[in-house]
Design goal:
globular, 33% strand, binds 2-acetamido-2-deoxy-beta-D-glucopyranose, Murine Class I Major Histocompatibility Complex, H2-DB, Chain A, domain 1
Length: 349
């Protein structure tokens, strides 16, 4: 459990002048994953994340730290990074000794995976939350209650978790070392790390949105048509996607469905929102996207009903920005000319 020493880069070094307090919560998180193949063989990966930005990685064939952001090297000197790699080596063997002991004592079998997530979350109101959560095979196992200085079992009735908790709680030295490191991480994060990463985290990438329809199956009873709004390429993560029926926002309910926000490979996000509609009911529909990159305005992508149904019929690849006021324009024009003529603010890439 010495792996938290991975946090050292943020606990060391001179502190920069006091930066502005962040306006949203910022989390620095170290993840470590170990695969225990058998009593003598394990693999380990680690990574550090500032918000959703991967800053460092580590694969323990060599246990060499990789720097994934231009500024990620700055917090330590080359010598300090080398020392840190040594510490990680030692922590790993400590960790695998503990795990091997638990496996022997409880008569458990290989293989299995352990996962750890530790770090600090800094809130705009000046408070912070320090955490260390451990999982086994994807399930919550134990957590450190950092303020109380005690490990707690996440599944209270699980014999393995209770045994591990008791074993770790005997090691008061490691617990107080962890408390100290997590606290220093918070201080370091507050004072300097946010500054280095601020530009990457403040990045604004505009969403690209497409509306298309999924036809009901040709055979079988009449079914509603599914309008799909696919929104992708946006950053940061928070976004609001709504459907408008005749200009009125459709309230949440059975007709709406959403994929939730999913990551893309290039550190942007995507989301799909669908709306079930009765064909031929004479309503007009549009998908409205609100995101911080749009400078207080909205994207509005109308569904063009005159087109035949069919998957993949993109009717509005809309990169342009449309003022919220455009909703009014759409309504006004659709009454005069029919909805399908209207592509407010559209500008194709
Ligand atoms: C342990 O697992 C490794 C990797 O799967 C394998 O190469 C090795 O032979 C195993 N050792 C024993 C003693 O089973
Ligand atoms: C500070 O903000 C966090 C997250 O928004 C919240 O959980 C916490 O209760 C707040 N603390 C105080 C003292 O306002
Ligand atoms: C972060 O720093 C500001 C002043 O720079 C301070 O007011 C705030 O309490 C600090 N927050 C934490 C969690 O240390
Ligand atoms: C205890 O937790 C471990 C790890 O999640 C799991 O493999 C095991 O099945 C659990 N035991 C019981 C009795 O729930
Ligand atoms: C990021 O932090 C640096 C260093 O403090 C500062 O010069 C810069 O203005 C900050 N950028 C943003 C977007 O806040
Ligand atoms: C919502 O969509 C998911 C797949 O994207 C699907 O599995 C689920 O059944 C849908 N729910 C409803 C109520 O249509």
């Amino acid at each position: 459990m010495l792996l938290p020493l991975l946090l050292l880069p943020w606990a060391w070094g001179a502190l920069a002048a006091s930066p502005p307090v962040p306006t949203v919560s910022v989390t620095l998180r170290v993840l470590h994953i170990e695969v225990f193949h058998n009593a003598s063989s394990m693999d380990m990966w680690g990574m550090a994340l500032l918000g959703d930005l991967e800053t460092h990685s580590l694969a323990c064939s060599t246990c060499e730290i990789r720097f994934l952001q231009p500024w990620a090297r700055q917090s330590l000197t080359p010598k300090e990074w080398q020392d840190l790699e040594l510490v990680i080596h030692r922590s790993l063997s400590y960790f695998s000794r503990i795990v091997t002991r638990i496996v022997q004592q409880l008569g458990k079998s290989y293989p299995f995976v352990t996962q750890g997530s530790l770090g600090c979350e800094l809130h705009p109101n000046g408070t912070s939350r320090r955490f260390y959560d451990g999982g086994v095979n994807g399930e919550d196992f134990i957590s450190l209650d950092v303020d109380a200085g005690k490990w707690v079992a996440r599944q209270g009735d699980n014999v393995s978790a209770r045994y591990t908790r008791d074993l770790l709680n005997q090691d008061k030295g490691t617990v107080s070392q962890l408390q100290l490191l997590l606290s220093m991480t918070c201080v370091k994060l507050n004072k300097s790390f946010v500054q280095h990463g601020n530009e990457s985290l403040a990045r604004q990438e505009r969403p690209v949105a497409v509306v298309f329809a999924r036809a009901p199956p040709p055979a079988g009873p009449p079914a509603p048509v599914l309008l799909v709004c696919r929104v992708t390429g946006f950053y940061p993560r928070p976004i609001r996607v709504a459907w408008l029926q005749d200009g009125e926002e459709v309230v949440p309910g059975g007709r709406l469905n959403s994929s939730g926000i999913l990551p893309n490979a290039d550190l942007t996000y995507q989301l799909r929102s669908s709306l079930a509609v009765e064909p031929g009911a004479g309503h007009s529909y549009a998908c409205r996207v609100q995101h911080s990159s749009l400078g207080g305005q909205s994207l509005l992508i109308p569904w063009e009903q005159s087109r035949p149904w069919g998957p993949g019929l993109a009717v509005g690849i809309t990169l342009g920005v449309v003022a919220v006021a455009a909703v009014a324009v759409v309504l006004w024009r659709s009454r005069r000319r029919g909805y399908q003529d209207v592509r407010p603010g559209e500008s194709r890439p």
